[in-house]
Structure formats: C-alpha cells, structure tokens
Design brief:
heterodimer; A: 329 residues; D-Maltodextrin-Binding Protein, domain 2; 2 domains; five-stranded mixed sheet; three-stranded antiparallel sheet; 14 helices; 10 strands; B: 267 residues; mainly alpha; MetI-like fold; 10 helices; 82% helix; flat
C-alpha cells in the first residue's frame, strides 16, 4: 500500500484529515471543559493549620452545605501556601480562603481584587531556642533569628526594639517556611526562632531541649497580626446571594470554637497531628472573632517598614468597606 | 560606489526594522492589554510601570544589591565547580576504571533536577550560601564533566597514538593536545552549564530565600510575590534574562569569534 510515495493530492488529503481530526479533538475538549453547569460552584481553600482552623471546621462540620442553597456545588481544595491561596482567589479560581492579614493589605495596595469577608484566628508566638547562652530576649542582640511570615518578622522587630532597645538588622533575620524553620532550629543553624505553639510542638519532637525564652503574644495581639477570610470579588459580585450563607457558615464555626474550644481542639487534633491541649490553648489565647480590626495601624506599620512604597489607603477607602464586618474602635 | 554603499545601508536598516517589528508589536500589545484593562494590572502590569519600577529599584531600591549578591554566589559556585570538574576529568584520564564508574554515576545524577535535592541539601548544608552553592555544583559538575569526557572519547585516535609515540607526559598531553582539540567542547559545555547554574541559583533563592534583605534575585522575586507587587516581580525576571543575554554576548560570543578565527570552530 505504501510502497509508492504519496502523491501531492494524497499528501494534502492526509494533512487536511489530520487537521480536521485535531480540530474535532480541540472543540470536544473545549466543550467538555466549558460545558454549561446546571449548578453554581464554590471552591473553598483550607489547610490543616491553626491559621485555617475556622475554615477547616466549616469543612469538617459541613457548614457550607448547611447554609448554601442546593444549586451550589461545593469543592474543597487544600493549599498550604498563603500566596497561592491569595492568587487563586484573586483570579477567581477559588472563591474563599484564609490569608495572613498583612499579605492581604499589601495585595490590596497592589490592586489585587480581594474582598475582606471576616477575621480569623491569630497565633500565639514565642521566641524559642536551644542555646544555653540565651535566657531572655535581652540576649538576642547579635543572634540569628528565623521566623515565618511578615507578621512574625514585624512583631519580633517591634517588640525587641520597643521593649529591649534591640534593633535587629536584616542580616540577623531569616524568613523561612514552617518546615525549613523547624529543620534549622533543630540543627542549631539559627540561634533562635519565632514559632507558634503548634510549630514549637512539632520542633520539640526532633529537638526536645528547645525552650521558650520570650513571649510575643502581647505584641501580636497589639499589632493585630491575624488571618482574614477573603473572597473573590467577581464571584460575589455575580452571586451576591451567596455571601450571607458563607458568612453564616463561618460565623457558626467561630461560635462553635468559642463555645467549646476543648471539643473543637479534640476534633481538629488528628487532622493537624498536634496535641488537642495545644490547639485548645491557642483558641483560649486568641479567641477568633468575625470583625476586622487594626487595618490602618498594620498598613502604616507595613509602610514604615518598607513593605509598601506609597502611603497606604485607609481602611474606610478599601473596596466593600461598608459591608465588611468591623470591630467597634 | 556611494550609491552601492547607500543601498547596503538601506538594506541593513530594513533588516534591522524587520527584526525590531515583532518586539514593537509585542510591546504595544502588552501596554494596551494592561492600560485598557484587557488583563488585570495585578496579573500583567503595564510595560511603562515595569520599566519605571525597574530603574527605580535598580538605582534606589534593593534590586541592585540582590543582583550583585546572586552574581557573587554564582561566580564563587562556578569557580568551585570548575576546580572539582578538573580534578574529576584528570582522574578519569589517569584511571580508566574510575572513568567507567564515574560516567555511570554522572549520567544518573545529571538526570536529577536540583529542586528534587532541595530537602537533602537543606539537611546537609543548612540554608544560605553554602546550600545554594551545593545546588549550583550539582547542576554544573555532572553536565560539564560529561561534555568534556565525551569530547575526549571523540578525539581522533591518531592524537593519542601520536602522543604515545613521542612519549608525551600527562601535562604536555593536556596542554598541547586535549585543550586545543577540546576547545569547542569546553566552550559548548561552559555555555550549557552557565545557563544551568544561573537557573539553579535563581530557583534555589526562590525556594528558600536567604538571609535578610539582600537575598539574591530569586529572593527578591519571592518576597515581592508575597507582597503582591508584580511590577517588582517582573523587574527581577527582566534582570535575570538581561544577565543571561549580556553574558552570552560579552563572553561566549567573543570566545566563539576567536575560535572561528583560530579555525577550531566552523560557521
């Protein structure tokens, strides 16, 4: 059959058939991906961490299912990076998720379309070390300290500068993710680390002699470094009726935590792989609330610290300010 | 004569404009896409915004220091890698059995991406410059040595026989036979490993950053992505590409021109 070379016309036919075949496959794939949905869909992002404890409870207790109308399909996606969660929501690939509030503010200043929906839990932080020469925050003047997240770094800098007159230089500070931070403190590659109680508990499994030498709880609470529930602007503009059910689900999760933190801690403990007592203590230290507070102070602090190039907008100037739940000042 | 010269100049100008045209179209489309809101600014800032940010960051911001830091680490890493590669190549020339063993190991290791080794590197070298240099070494040494060893294998047998006949010692063989004959392999190898090293370095900096504000270009990109400042992210990416282009034009193109003059490289 193929002993003789294909004639020019045959070559053209084969080429045209191949092109047609590819076009059919492409159109089929496009239709499959973009097939009209009978149901609306909401994608929510969670992570097994203290920062995402409220939204994890929403998932575990099926609170979105309880409040959202039947025509809404619910999808849960796990993402352990705050930047990824923010980007997914800004581009409407996901519709709700929890992001560190400092990151939300810098993102809003850079025109990210994000809608602040509610407050979330903060995390208790302390400075931990295994170095015998460090016994208090006053011994940290020339030490190398690791931390995770802008909030932790700013809290540390402000606390040591204001209370101990120690001005940490950039060369002393290491910004790491959680696992790197635990690895490095365990290997003595940094002198100290700012950790949440949950992180410290994980680190102590590999380095039992770690001890807390200074608490940053008060400074964290004063600054207001917490996590906020954010939503997709375009999604809630197109589906305004879904905002209330989402808020009801989130509020019920917060109320459940505050009503019985011990029970919730026990529920979340196997998921987070952390002792229930530690999770409970975090809830007792920072009882989560729905209302947003401290926006202007944090924005100003970010500006002073060089994280923002221009003077930030005021809280009252951000989009959807009117509908954002606010704590009375 | 003058008319011919004028025609040649005109042709050159036309060719230049033809090459420039696609870039101008892309630039115009990019600017329109951002300014007219076809693409949100947080995804694609306008080129004019990026250019302004780039210059401001280079001259008054931290971009310049991050660039210098990345380049210094790269130079240190490449210097170490070339010494290590030289020792390995000498050992392979001297000991045939080691060469077979090494080539197997190098082929295996060469297929492992640097980022796959990141968890191990952090455990062994900690975090910071030493870990980044270790990752750069991984992306350079295996590839470069394989290039050179393959070059040695493909040398005409007569070179070897000639060296044997006149009893050349190892030093003279390397200086008078291997290096001149392997110059195209060395240049091609360096060109490949430079690109690999640069990519690994930036990748490592993005992955685990470094100490403080001057953590390298990768760290600069990462921290600005964290803050959602895409104009700065693009500035960092442009600098990375510009360094690649400058090194290629300033170093490798010149070497290749010289090699063409010597006749060791053909058009």
């Amino acid at each position: 059959m193929f002993e003789q070379p294909l004639k020019e016309t045959n070559k053209f036919k084969v080429f045209a058939m191949a092109l047609l075949g590819l076009a059919i496959i492409a159109v089929g794939a496009f239709l499959c991906i973009n097939k009209p949905r009978d149901k609306r869909k909401i994608t929510a992002i969670y992570e097994y961490s203290q920062a995402c404890s409220v939204i994890t409870l929403v998932k575990e207790n099926q609170l979105l299912e309880k409040y959202l109308p039947d025509d809404v399909e619910i999808e849960w996606v796990m993402m352990d990076s705050g930047s990824d969660r923010r980007d997914a929501i800004a581009t409407d690939r996901a519709q709700i998720g929890v992001v560190e509030n400092l990151k939300v503010i810098t993102s809003l200043e850079n025109d990210y379309p994000l809608r602040i929906l509610a407050n979330g839990p903060a995390s208790y932080r302390g400075i931990y070390t295994a170095d015998d020469n460090i016994n208090s925050a006053a011994d940290l003047a020339d030490k190398k300290i690791a931390y995770q997240g802008t909030g932790a770094g700013l809290t540390l800098k402000k606390d040591l500068a204001e209370n101990y007159q120690i001005n940490l230089t950039d060369d002393q500070l290491l910004s790491l993710n959680e696992q790197q931070l635990i690895d490095l403190i365990a290997q003595d590659q940094v002198d100290a680390a700012v950790m949440t109680r949950v992180m410290a508990s994980k680190a102590m499994q590999v380095r039992p002699d770690l001890r807390m030498v200074h608490s940053l709880t008060e400074e964290t609470a004063r600054i207001g470094a917490t996590y906020w529930l954010i939503g997709s602007v375009s999604y809630f503009d197109q589906n305004p009726d879904l905002l209330e059910p989402v808020m009801k689900a989130y509020t019920e999760a917060i109320e459940t935590i505050n009503k019985d933190p011990k029970a919730v801690a026990e529920q979340l403990s196997p998921l987070f792989e952390i002792d229930a007592e530690i999770i409970e203590q975090e809830f007792l230290d920072f009882a989560p609330i729905v209302e947003i507070y401290g926006y202007d102070e944090i924005a100003e602090m970010l500006y002073e610290n060089g994280e923002l190039d221009e003077a930030p907008k005021k809280f009252a100037e951000i989009p959807y300010y009117e509908s954002t739940p606010k704590k009375a000042e | 004569m003058k008319a011919r010269q004028r025609k040649q100049n005109k042709n050159k100008l036309v060719t230049f404009l033809k090459r420039l045209a696609p870039f101008l179209v892309i630039i115009a489309l990019w600017e329109c896409a951002s300014r007219l809101g076809w693409v949100p600014k947080f995804i694609l800032p306008s080129l004019s915004t990026i250019t302004g940010t780039l210059f401001r960051e280079l001259f008054t911001g931290t971009l310049f220091f991050n660039l210098i830091r990345s380049l210094l680490i790269l130079i240190a890493g490449l210097a170490i890698d070339l010494v290590v590669s030289l020792i390995i190549i000498l050992a392979c020339i001297k000991f045939q059995s080691f060469k077979y063993f090494y080539k197997t190991v190098a082929t295996m290791m060469n297929s492992i991406p640097s980022m796959a080794l990141l968890p191990l590197i952090i455990m062994w070298f900690g975090i910071g410059d030493s870990a980044i240099i270790a990752l750069v070494t991984h992306s350079v040494v295996w590839t470069f040595t394989i290039y050179i060893l393959d070059g040695i294998n493909s040398l005409p047998k007569i070179y070897q026989e000639f060296a044997d006949n006149i009893n050349l010692d190892l030093k003279s063989r390397i200086k008078d036979i291997y290096i001149p004959a392997l110059l195209p392999n060395i240049t091609a190898g360096l060109k490949v490993v430079w690109g690999r090293a640069w990519r690994s370095l930036i990748g490592a900096e993005v992955a685990f950053g470094a100490i403080g504000a001057a953590g390298g270009l990768g760290y600069y990109i990462n921290i600005n992505r964290y803050n959602g400042d895409m104009a700065k992210v693009f500035s960092g990416i442009i600098i990375i590409a510009a360094v690649g282009l400058i090194v290629d034009l300033a170093v490798f193109s010149n070497i290749e021109k010289k090699m063409k003059k010597w006749g060791t490289l053909h058009e």
